[in-house]
Amino acid sequence: MSRVFVISDHHFGHQNIIDFESRPFATAEEMDEYMINQWNEIVEKEDKVFHLGDFSFYNKEKTKAIVQRLHGKKFLILGNHDRGRSKAWWLDAGFEEVSEYPIIYGGFYLLSHEPMYMNKHMPYVNVHGHIHGQKYEGKHYFNACVEHWDYKPVDFEAIRSSLAPNEEQQ
């Protein structure tokens, strides 16, 4: 049975992110290989992965090579660093679907690149990226940035389980 995962902010090929976020790598190439291996360790061919943006700093050829190496069917929500390229560019790079805007998943989860405003009365959870090592408090936010998950996509069932008390209050 296929599973659904989310992940954000790989920044493939971005040497400076290593210093910006204190990532434990010497080079972007070392980082890229580690992140590809971490992804493929848990994602199977038939699984679906929502990437919440800031995927790659490489040209299309190198980006496509990475996308092809990653297991699963990949869906991209454009991040701030992805927006300089068209939806067609990303589709050609190998993503199944590309969205310029947040999407609603499962009628309850708002998948976005940047955190969205969520007040305590809203019945939704915002699964997001963008803020890397930071974290918003409360059950309305779930940070899917690679820094929080050892560079592995997060199984949606784990997200659902971690938020179960919030869902039962509805």
From TrEMBL:
Coiled coil: none
Gene3D superfamilies (UniProt xref): 3.60.21.10
SUPFAM superfamilies named among the record's database cross-references: Metallo-dependent phosphatases
Organism superkingdom: Bacteria
Signal peptide: none
The Calcineurin-like phosphoesterase domain, residue ranges: 3-130
InterPro entries per record: Calcineurin-like_PHP, Metallo-depent_PP-like
Protein name: Metallophosphoesterase
Organism: Paenibacillus albilobatus
